[in-house]
Each structure stands twice: as structure tokens, then as C-alpha cells.
């Protein structure tokens, strides 16, 4: 799923690969870190699209913490929702500079399987 809202584009899909972290030397003798994620976005009327997400600053630190989590660590196959500003990409893929990121739905809500509940006689008609 993908849609636009103002200057932002939002995507939802599964991570196609483990997130990639890279360090670059900075002019002040320190370093700059950038984290990249590739999200496979399924479209009902087109082929799967692979969208690159670039995370820096607080978003990068948040994602690094999710990667280090002892339970449900972020990795390939994890469902994510993200939003960001479109930026130019060298690879030709759509690329977003990450602003909003989540790997959880509200309150970790799991969608109910109404067909199964109806079959088991637990759902009202």
C-alpha cells in the first residue's frame, strides 16, 4: 500500500532485506551514520514495488534499538509502515527520506479472522 499526503508519501509492506547501517567519515573527525531499509510494497493493480527508506537522526536510533531488541527484532519479513519525503535515487528505485516509522499496529492489534469465527459459531450475523 502506498499513498501521498501533502509533501509526504506513506508506504506499508514487508522488509525485503535486513536493514543496512553504514558509517561515513565526517569533516570534524567524527562519523555520520545512515540506515537504509528496503520495503516491498504490494499493489493490487501492479507488480510489487521496492521502496528504499533512508533513516538519519532520531529515526535511525529508534530503528537501531528495534534491531537490537531481544524479542521480535526488526529484520527481513517484518511488516512496517513508513512515511517520508521523496528524494532522488541513484538506483532508479523510489526513495523516501524517513520521517515516520512503525513496525507495530495500534496496541499490537491483530486482525480478526471473521470467517473462522463465523464457522465456529462465535461471531454474530
Give a quick rundown of the structure:
With 125 residues, the protein is mainly beta. It has a single domain, classed as OB fold (Dihydrolipoamide Acetyltransferase, E2P).
How would you sum up this structure, described in words?
The chain has helices at residues 57-68, 114-119; strands at residues 2-5, 8-15, 20-25, 31-43, 46-55, 79-87, 94-102. A hairpin with a 2-residue loop joins β4 (31-43) and β5. Helices cover 14% and strands 47% of the residues. It is built from two helices and seven strands. The radius of gyration is 18 Å and the shape is globular. With 125 residues, it is mainly beta.
Brief descriptors of the model:
125 residues, mainly beta, OB fold (Dihydrolipoamide Acetyltransferase, E2P), five-stranded mixed β-barrel, 7 strands
What are the SSEs and their pairings?
Blueprint: E1 2-5, E2 8-15, E3 20-25, E4 31-43, E5 46-55, H1 57-68, E6 79-87, E7 94-102, H2 114-119
Parallel strand pairs: 5-7
Antiparallel strand pairs: 1-2, 2-4, 2-6, 3-4, 4-5, 6-7
| Residue share in β-strands | over 45%
CATH topology: OB fold (Dihydrolipoamide Acetyltransferase, E2P)
Largest sheet: 5 strands, mixed, barrel
Look at the structure and give the CATH class: Mainly Beta
Number of helices: 2
Distance between the termini: 30 Å
Radius of gyration: 18 Å
Query: Which runs of at least 5 residues are low in confidence (pLDDT < 50)?
Result: none
Counting helices, strands and paired strands, the structural category is mainly beta
What's the name of the CATH homologous superfamily?
A: Nucleic acid-binding proteins
Number of strands: 7
User: What is the annotated CATH architecture?
Assistant: Beta Barrel
* Order of strands across the main sheet: 2-4-5-7-6
Amino acid at each position: 500500500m502506498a499513498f501521498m499526503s501533502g509533501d509526504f508519501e506513506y508506504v506499508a509492506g514487508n522488509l525485503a532485506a535486513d536493514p543496512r547501517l553504514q558509517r561515513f567519515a565526517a569533516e570534524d573527525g567524527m562519523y555520520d551514520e545512515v540506515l537504509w531499509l528496503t520495503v516491498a510494497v504490494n499493489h493490487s493493480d501492479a507488480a510489487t514495488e521496492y521502496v528504499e527508506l533512508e533513516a538519519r537522526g532520531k529515526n535511525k536510533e529508534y530503528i537501531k534499538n528495534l534491531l537490537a531488541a531481544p524479542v521480535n527484532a526488526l529484520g527481513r519479513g517484518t511488516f512496517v509502515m513508513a512515511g517520508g519525503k521523496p528524494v532522488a535515487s541513484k538506483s532508479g528505485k523510489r526513495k523516501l527520506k524517513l520521517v515516520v516509522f512503525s513496525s507495530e499496529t495500534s496496541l499490537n492489534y491483530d486482525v480478526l479472522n471473521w470467517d473462522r469465527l463465523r464457522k465456529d459459531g462465535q461471531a454474530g450475523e
